[in-house]
Specification:
By secondary structure, the chain is α/β, with parallel strands linked by helices. It has two domains: about 190 residues, Rossmann fold (3-Layer(aba) Sandwich), CATH 3.40.50.720; about 130 residues, NAD(P)-binding Rossmann-like Domain (Rossmann fold, 3-Layer(aba) Sandwich), CATH 3.40.50.720. The protein is built from 18 helices and 14 strands. The strands form three sheets. The protein has a six-stranded parallel sheet, with helices on both faces. α9 packs across α11, α9 packs across α12 and α11 packs antiparallel against α12. The mean pLDDT is about 95. It binds 1,4-dihydronicotinamide adenine dinucleotide and uridine-5'-diphosphate-glucuronic acid.
């Protein structure tokens, strides 16, 4: 099938490449000329394991362009995968989606199915359909279907090729048939539902996961107060199949491009409809506080951060991605800098993006050893494998004052038991709590 994909971010590009790998003729469209030039050279503009290789393997079925007119003119299916970022009031900004809808309406010369993959508030597909029908120039039938995306960054290619489910939201039979055909070689359960249900499935899924994380973070905070161990608690909970053992990792809160914005968007939508979604509001509030957890912990050891050497391990919102969107590092590092700390950061792939936002004042390091050498305190913000596999004795050997605040519970407590390292993590007892406290 001839497919166009609008937007070559995590969702658009991965979708385009995976569809091409299954034999479809795919044109990926983006407004960003630099990105398009890069992709034409065979390079991916984002870091996503396996993407570069699959792109190379599927090159004969793939093209990249900024020329949307040509791409939308005779496509059978047009996927929309542009961003729907958060607006100041928490609602979703649909400007990019409408822009693509307008471009399609003005250029489609043949019957086609427009597929909304971007995460959009319930009812948006209906509005986009009316908008396209109002604005279209040629006498062709343009259908609109919802097909929300569930991939996670860092495993995007795998998640697309082996999706947990493919949700197809339609109001008519034809677009459902077309999408079944598009996905016929994808090994995943396919679910055809009402369009508004499809839109709600996306928000309800993301927000449930966010709620699960905030819930477990609150339990972890309480564990610290009452002397229980969150890792043992979640292990025990996870045996119950009704709870499940995934997404129960306590830490310094969820980040990323979606959980924060999708929780706020659903909360906004509820309020807009004179409704309340109190659980999600609580999840948002808990998460915002949780991001500052390590700074609060640091105050147990130092009165202030003036002239302190602070080592930061990990700045991306999770491992396996170079994405910084809503990462805890973005709120913690400015606070440390404001308080006069000398900040050193190590991250295997995220520092280039971090540098764009914070070009000076921070020392960027090539190794964990370099970041922690001479440090007065170390904050672990992302659980990269190389952090988890780091020999903990080196904290003692290299740091001026070996206080390790672990926001992602990378190590077992026993690893620190016979050391002179203060190890303070989330929802667990602190090892050597009193060795280095300021008077
Ligand atoms: N990032 C993720 O893991 C997931 C994202 N989503 C949703 O998918 C949507 C896209 O997210 P990302 O891929 O992260 O966004 P992104 O910000 O990485 O990429 C969006 C791309 O669209 C391009 N663009 C903007 N206007 C355009 C236009 N008129 N024509 C063509 N391209 C245009 C931008 O230049 C950019 O390259 C959002 O609604 C998001 O909520 C859903 C599931 C997973
Ligand atoms: O709509 C989206 O964009 C996507 O959002 C998330 O994917 P992603 O943001 O890539 O990353 P996750 O692995 O879900 O992690 C999100 C955040 O939650 C945190 N997290 C995750 C799991 C956990 O147990 N604890 C926890 O704190 C991570 O550290 C990270 O900051 C969902 O997992 C995807 O299904 C969804 O498609």
């Amino acid at each position: 099938m001839k497919i166009a994909v609008a937007g070559t971010g995590y969702v658009g590009l991965v979708t385009g490449v995976c569809l091409a790998s299954k034999g479809h003729q795919v044109t990926c469209v983006d407004v960003d000329e630099k990105k398009v030039e890069k992709m034409k050279r065979g390079e991916t503009p984002i870091y996503e394991p396996g993407l570069q290789e699959l792109m190379a393997q599927s090159v004969k079925n793939l093209s990249f362009t900024t020329d949307y007119k040509e791409a939308y003119r005779d496509a059978d299916v047009i996927f929309i995968g542009v961003g729907t970022p958060e607006k100041y009031d928490g609602s979703a900004n649909l400007a990019y989606v409408y822009e693509v809808a307008k471009q399609i309406a003005q250029n489609a010369e043949k019957h086609c199915v427009v597929v909304l993959k971007s995460t959009v508030p319930i009812g948006t597909n209906d509005k986009i359909e009316s908008y396209i029908h109002d604005k279209q120039i040629n006498d062709v039938k343009i259908y609109v279907a919802s097909n929300p995306e569930f991939l996670s960054q860092g495993t995007a290619v795998h998640d697309t090729l082996h999706a947990s489910r493919i949700v197809i939201g339609v109001t008519e039979e034809y677009p459902a048939k077309v999408l079944q055909k598009v996905y016929e070689d994808f090994d995943a359960p396919k679910l055809v539902v009402e369009r508004r249900s499809a839109e709600m499935i996306k928000y309800a899924s993301n927000d449930f996961l966010a709620l699960k994380i905030s819930y477990i973070n609150e339990i972890a905070n309480l564990c610290e107060v009452v002397g229980a161990d969150i890792e043992e608690v979640t292990e025990g909970m996870g045996f119950d199949g009704r709870i499940g053992n995934r997404f129960l990792k306590a830490g310094i809160g969820y980040g990323g491009s979606c959980f924060p914005k999708d929780t706020k968007a659903l909360n906004w939508l509820a309020n807009f409809n004179d409704n309340e979604i109190r659980t999600i509001r609580a999840a948002i509030e808990v998460n915002e506080n949780q991001k500052f957890k390590l700074i609060k912990k640091a105050k147990k050891y130092y009165h202030d951060f003036l002239f302190l050497n602070v080592a930061i391990l990990g700045c991306t919102f999770k491992p396996g991605t170079d994405d910084l969107r809503e990462a805890p590092s973005l709120v913690n590092v400015p606070l440390l800098l404001e308080d006069g700390a000398h900040v050193r950061i190590w991250d295997p792939v995220g520092t280039a993006n971090f540098k764009k936002r914070f070009p000076d004042k921070i020392q960027y390091c090539d190794s964990i050893e370099q970041a922690i050498e001479g440090a007065d305190i170390c904050l672990i913000l992302t659980e990269w494998e190389s952090v988890k596999n780091f020999e903990v004795e080196k904290f003692q050997k290299l740091m001026k004052c070996p206080i390790v605040l672990d926001g992602r519970n990378c190590y077992s407590l026993s690893a620190f038991e016979n050391t002179k390292i203060t190890y303070d993590s989330i929802g667990r007892k602190t090892i050597n709590p009193n060795l280095y406290k300021e008077n």
